[in-house]
Amino acid sequence: MRGVTPNYYHSYTFFFFFFVVLLALFLHVFSINTLSSTETLTISSNRTIVSPGNIFELGSSKLQQALEMISYANLVLLDHSGTLVWSTNLTRTVKSPVVAELLDNGNFVLRDSKGNYQNRFLWQSFDYPVDTLLPEMKIGRDLKTGHETFLSSWRSPYDPSSGDFSFKLGTQGLPEFYLFKKEFLLYRSGPWNGVGFSGIPTMQNWSYFDVVNNFIENREEVAYNGIRHHRNGTCLAFYRPRNAICTKCGRDSYCDTKTSPTCNCIKGFVPKNVTAWALGDTFEGCVRKSRLNCHRDGFFLLMKRMKLPGTSTAIVDKTIGLNECKERCSKDCNCTGFANKDIQNGGSGCVIWTGELMDMRNYVVGGQDLYVKIGLYN
């Protein structure tokens, strides 16, 4: 259950001052990883709790006075004046004693002292990430409760309250990642295609690493955690490709860093504003040379190795293949393009776009096949 912040501290999001360190060999052998209802972590006490493997350590930061557990099995965070800043705000009744525990994977949990199974956690920090995504942590949405987990930047290097940047998994259409600055979209990863995200072609060719793309999509949740196993350890990484923000190219065009200019109209399209386009202002994008005849035009241009357009308004059908997908698009006067949903094992599923094709890019390797509807004479 989500913690609730009082109105007078509305700018604070839940945080603990997690710092990931390789603890020195002289770390005290009796370090503990739990906090009982009678214990408090304060700056003055200089006390912390340490995960069993001596990897993670948790304590109070200078911005907070104390972290403690009160008798109602809730964690509370107090400032220097003793004012409540944050609470787990749990309401369920717990008969057994409750302990707070820092697990070996970095998850800080509240649990019944008689059991530590994951489905018995009363609360866990992995449900509320801040700016760091650890292996086994998820980004996504619980479809039953609507709870969304995403990353958010710190306000400053010394202030862990929410900053301007957030990294989220969009679940409208096909899942894909979005990077926002406040409400402004800076970057999207391209849709998930069963192997990786179409706008991150390196995900399909990580030969140096053993890549485990744990993507979960069912009736209960849509979530992702990508773990890269390196011979010297495990890490989780996402990459924003260089020059990845190609939304400046505008509608019905695509970005190709191998061409000059980098913005190109799709074949059969021309710049909407020829003068502005020639001056490098490509924001208005492209338009068709001639309007489609709904009953006559059913021809498609194959664009290979593409970052697919956004799918938040696209039609997705997991049950059909590419041929039936093409047939549906041909018969739909509003269809502007189609592609496979999943590129594994020869491809499956169908995605149909019915509007402008935005934020596309062509790659040397990776990407995905996209079929764009064009007129007979184009």
UniProtKB/TrEMBL annotation:
Statement: the UniProt record of this protein carries the keyword Glycoprotein: yes
Recorded superkingdom: Eukaryota
Transmembrane intervals: 12-30
Keyword Hydrolase: no
Annotated GO biological process: recognition of pollen
Domain Apple: 294-375
Domain Bulb-type lectin: start-end pairs: 1-123
Keyword vocabulary terms for this entry: Disulfide bond, Glycoprotein, Lectin, Membrane, Signal, Transmembrane, Transmembrane helix
Function according to Swiss-Prot or TrEMBL: Involved in sporophytic self-incompatibility system (the inability of flowering plants to achieve self-fertilization).
Protein name: Uncharacterized protein
